[in-house]
Amino acid sequence: MPEDTQIGGARQHFPTTRWSIIERTRSSQAEERQRALDGLISAYWKPVYKYIRLHWKKENEEAKDLTQEFFARLVEKNLLDRFDPSRARLRTYLRVCVDGLVMNEDKAAQRVKRGGDVTLLPLDFETAEGELKELPVAATADNPEELFSREFARSLFGLALERLRSECAANGKTIHFQLLELYDIEEGGRQLTYEDLARWSGIKTTDVTNHLAHARKEFRRIVLAELRTMTASEEEFRREAHTLLGVKL
Amino acid sequence: MTRFLSDSAIERLREAADSPYLTGTRYRLVDKLGQGGMGGVFRVEDTALDRQVAMKVISVADPDGTGCARLLQEARIIAKLEHPGIVPVHDAGLLSDGRPYYTMKLVQGQRLEERVATVPALSDRLRIFLRICDAVAFAHAHGVLHRDLKPSNVMVGPFGEVLVMDWGLSKLVAEKAESSVSQSAGLSPKKLGNTATAHGTVLGTPGFMAPEQTRGESVDQRADVYSLGAILQSLSAEASPVPRALAAIRKQAMAEDSAGRYQTVTDLATDVAHFLDGLPVSAYPEGLVTRCWRWIVRNRVWILLLLAYVVARALLIFFRPR
To answer: Topology of B108-169+204-285 in CATH?
Structure first.
């Protein structure tokens, strides 16, 4: 997505002009609508699946069906058109929609199983299921909002890291990303000194400092850009930045 | 395929996303000291001067520039207040990640509430309180309200120096001063005026905030008087019983109606100083007998000397050989 890399200049790294995903899903152009939905699904499908598994304690197969059905309904019933950013965050709205879907599941025994003539989204449920095993046991005890918020942060940060990885690779800065991965993501990475990182990467310590700072700056920029697309108003953007990045604005 | 991020990895990434981008500056990041309402405060090394300073940087997202305006306002306000009780600003600018910052003296010491735990004597605590009043009165004299005075915003250094910190909610009172700051910052006065209560938020700390500030009304220096009264209350809470005159000072400083409070910080400080010196305080009118007794106690040395002299003269007269 080349337009994503153009956000911000030397003095303006806070994206302010990108359309929000909500606006784009209401676009008159089908292609634009589809791209927006793809973006929304890529950020939200794992949180939705894990939320159904952990909070609603649904079995693997049932959670897969419900996740597929949720996104299908989102499109077919134009659920995003009913979203009012002045009343709730998009994240909360989607979670409440998931709750509604699951709660109605029993009485909707006649619910049509997705499949056959219906296109299933290519979602990697095996990976998501594997990630559930990595979560601490206490994760299931979180209140619904916290659980969904945490999984959304995990999904968004994961997407941002993938984008950072590909941008770094494209710009010949793979080492920048590797340093971030080693120092900020790997368990025990913070126990390494910059001198350790310099020896590991074969560059000078000052370069480690600069490369790591660059990767962190780019990560922040990408997270904010993604967050911008996932929110419908400035106020929601602020609140989400507070929730996801732990900063108060 | 996106990799799985553990909860601790997410926390580290959050921290990484918040760290300032210092490449190309004279500063090198050491660690994070704390997080305020508007931004983070980091310990950085000033490589040009080979010293550590504190750097306040706005938090990551500032879509409409409100946070930027507030941080610059804060830096410029503090820079105007050159006083030993106010932490000095060294530098301000814009990082290449687009975030504004300013650096200030790195204060080594304890927060007031930690420090007073090691200062049992009420008189010593009141002397610290008077130093706080000095700094706030100085700010008021320059048209600046603090609006968030509380024990955690006061640092006491190892040599007893008292510093009033965190002027993030401070406000220039004088219209003239406000417009001059906003013009030099390249900001419209309207924008600057709105920043303090952006998004309808009431700014301040419950328990230390004047009632009119809690209600979101406009405030003047008497709001800071109220907050100082609350600090005085916290400093003297352990005194038992609280001397009546001191209780009266606290009560007047924290009057519900601002018209009933001390009208200036100097008035409040004067009463506290009088209390320390054993002099009458304006908040606690005394009867004639009490005033006489206080005068006697205060001048007991002279009175005893005079009495001794009179007795000696009387004895000399009585026993004088006839």
So the answer is: Transferase(Phosphotransferase); domain 1 (1.10.510)
